[in-house]
Amino acid sequence: MLNETLTPTVLKPPAKSAPVIPGNYLFAFILVTSLFALWGFANDITNPMVAAFKNILLISNFESSLVQFAFYGGYCVMAVPAALFIQRFSYRAGLLVGLALYAIGCLLFVPAGNAMLFGAFLAAYFIMTCGLAFLETSANPYILSMGAPETATRRLNFAQAFNPLGSITGMLVARNLILAKLDTTPEDARRALAVSDPAAFAKIQSADFDVIVGPYVALGLVVLVMMGVFAFIKLPVAAKRSEVNLRAGPTVKRLLSQPHFIWGVVTQAFYVGAQIMLWTFIIQYAVNELGMSAADAQTYNIIAMAIFVSCRFICTYLLKYFSPGRLLAGLAVGAGVLTAGTIFLHGLPGLYCLVGVSACMSLMFPTIYGIALEGTGEDAKLGSAGLILAIGGGCIMTPLQGAIMDLSAFNFGFFTLSSTRFSFFLPLICFVVIAFYGWFNRAPRGGVAKL
After folding, report:
1. Whole-Å CA distances, 410 to 61, 65, 127, 350, 403
2. Sorting pLDDT into bands at 50, 70 and 90, what band is 260?
3. Domains of the chain by range and CATH?
4. CA distance 354 to 211
5. Which of 154, 170, 142 is nearest to 37 (CA)?
6. Of 129, 139, 230, 306, which one has the greatest count of Cβ atoms within 10 A?
7. To 5 degrees, how large is the angle CA 192–CA 178–CA 290?
8. Which of 357, 266, 369 has its CA nearest to residue 304?
9. Interatomic CA distance for residues 332 and 350, integer angstroms
10. Which of 87, 171, 178, 79 is nearest to 133 (CA)?
């Protein structure tokens, strides 16, 4: 039963004798880490759906990005209730509720597709991510607790390295089983058909919705299988529950007294906003700036994720030699430079910069998470909920970028920027915030920063 209490996350140079994953936690680590891939799949099969719904429903970039508003809005609404639920019951209960909501959300795509209502799809996405909020609020701190506190950040980075594997699978499914199979009638022809022959247009829409629904239903069935596994297999208790007061009020007060936690939540919101914007609108960038098809543009998204996966392992290794905050700051600066290239460079060079940003983002989420929870001790359960709630940054910033894309080009007199390229100033601002957070937390509390 997962009724353990978290061990505090302390970012000190790891002792050579402390294994990152102790043998008694190995099976639990593997099983819980599989969930990282499972929610990575959900994230990245969904990002390309912004472009898909835009074409199917003939809506604006802002309207289509409401997919991300609903998807990441579930984190905002459910993260704190999930933490309170886990605190009252157990991590195992949180995982089971999360998997149940995840599966229900996927299976609700069937009635949504039959009704052909965008709002019904948004509701299904919202319920899915209410489940993901439970899963992430449970799994992240549980991974942190599986071993010595000084290796916690490396352990979480290693577990998070498997999240992009699920993401790549989701991207491949989106490209090959959804985007490539959608009706290829151009947008202008669709608009004309909607006026001249509404019945024929509705038939095309229905076929396209059927294409979208199938993979989500299959995903729902996989999640149900995982739910069965977690229902019948016991996981080890991480630590004996202490007598520390775990009531919500005192816990929140203690957390709010720690600036590195508060700013960690803010920074995490900016990071997730940047990540979702970059991975959602890479398709629009390639389509609008280079004239690619959505399916071809998705290939660059897959390349970006492959880079992300590779660099996550590399950056996890570099944590042996650099403090988490210092490495975070350096990578944020690199991400900002590449994002600037996305804005100011034309054609393929700009697209290559956009793809390259993923190399710098690979370390950011788990490292911000680990820094923010350093020293929170028993309060980490509710603290982790604040960091999961911060994932809601994606639900706010993505529609905002979509709204900018819907505007006309920006003329500065001596040069002009398309609205697509100009919109990437938003993630650039996010990386500036992340760089400051990393720099001001470059030394572990109570210690001296490494190189």
Report:
1. 17, 21, 38, 17, 14
2. confident
3. 23-238+247-440 (1.20.1250.20)
4. 29
5. 170
6. 129
7. 65
8. 357
9. 18
10. 79
